[in-house]
Amino acid sequence: MSPGSLSKILPAIVLAVTAMLTAAAIEFLPGTLYFPVVEYTTPDDIHVTMLKYGETDVPRCERSVSQVAGSVRASCPACKYVERCARGLDATHRKILSREPLAMPSLRTQNGRLTLTVTAKTPELALGVCQMVAEQTAAQAADNKLVCFPALTSR
Amino acid sequence: MTAREKLYDAAMRLPIVALTLYFLGREILGIRGLIATHPYFGGDWPFLTTLTSRVSVVIFLVVLASLHASRYRPVGKHSTWKPKITAIVGAFLTFALLLLPRAGPDAIWDGLSALLILIGSVASVHVVLNLGRSLSIMPEARKLVTNGPYRRIRHPLYLAEEIATLGFFLQFRSWQAVLLLLVHFYFQVRRMDWEEHILAGTFPDYAEYKRHSCRLIPGVY
Q1: Do B37 and A6 touch (CB under 8 A)?
Q2: Which ipTM value was assigned to this complex?
Q3: B165-192 pLDDT, tens digit each
Q4: B residues 11..40 contacting A (CB < 8 A)
C-alpha cells in the first residue's frame, strides 16, 4: 500500500483503533481490578452483601474491606462475616453494581460506589431492613447516604 | 552505516522511546484506575467520552514512540548544547502535562480533547508518511522534504503535535497546565528556529523553500 492511499484511510484506521481500545478497556480492565466484598449474616438470618467499586491493587482493596467491615462489626458484634477482595466482577457482582433491577431489596450511594443487597426469611423483612438502613444514613453526607430500592425496581 | 554507527543511533533513540513508553504505561494504569472507580454497564455516554479521551492519549503516545523508534540518522546537527536543551525541554513539557492532576470528567471538554488528540495523531502519521524517517527530537538535518504537507508548511509535524498537546491540555484545565502549555509553546518555537538554522546550513535549497512556505499556519504564522 502506498503512503498516499494509506493517508486516505488513516482517519478511519485511527477511529477504529480508538473504538477497539475503548471497548477492550471496558471489557478486560475490570478483570485486573480488586473489588471489596463484605458479607454478613445476623443471628436472625438477615444476609447483607456489601460491594464497592474496584481498587487497582490488593493492599488498597484490603484497606477498603477492613474499613467497611470495621464499621459494620461495631454495630453487630454477633454477626458472622466474610470479607474478601474479589478479582474482577462475576456476573452476580456485575449486576449488583449496575443499575439493573435486582431480585432482592438493595441500597446504594448516590455515586454508586457502594451497593448493598439484603435477603431475609421473608421479602417484607428484607425490605424493612433495607429501609431502616437507609433511614440510619439519611443524615450523612450525600456520598455516604444510602438509598433503598425495593426488589425488581430500577435503581 | 557501520555496525558501531547503528548501535550509537539506536542508543540515541532509546531515552525518548523509553520515556514515551513510561508515560504510555502510566496512562494505561490511569485508565485502569478510571475503570475501577467507574465500572461501565452500558449507555453511559459521558463516561464513554471521558474514556475515549484517555484512550486517545494512549494512541498518540504509541504514534510518538513508533515515530522516534524508526527515524533516520542525521546528516547534519548542532554541536552546541543550547539547541539540544531547547529541543529536550520543548518535547518533554508535553509529557510533564501528563504528570499534573487531571480535571474531573466532563463530557464536552473530554469529547473536544479526544477529537483534538485524534486529529493530532492522524495528522502526525500523515506527515510522517511524507517525511519518511527524517524525524528527530534534536534539531538535526536528515534530508530535505518539501512535498505533501511540507509543500506549504515548514513544520507540519509540530502543528500536528501542538493540536494533540492542546487536546491533552483540555483534560487538565488548570493554571499549572496553562503555564506548562505556554512554556512548551515557547520552547517549540525556539526548536523551529534551531531546526531552520541547521537545515539552512545543510541544504542549499532551503532558503528558496523557506520563501515559498509558511512556518506553521498558512496565512497566520
Answers
A1: no
A2: 0.77
A3: 999 999 999 999 999 999 999 988 888 8
A4: 29, 31-33, 35-40
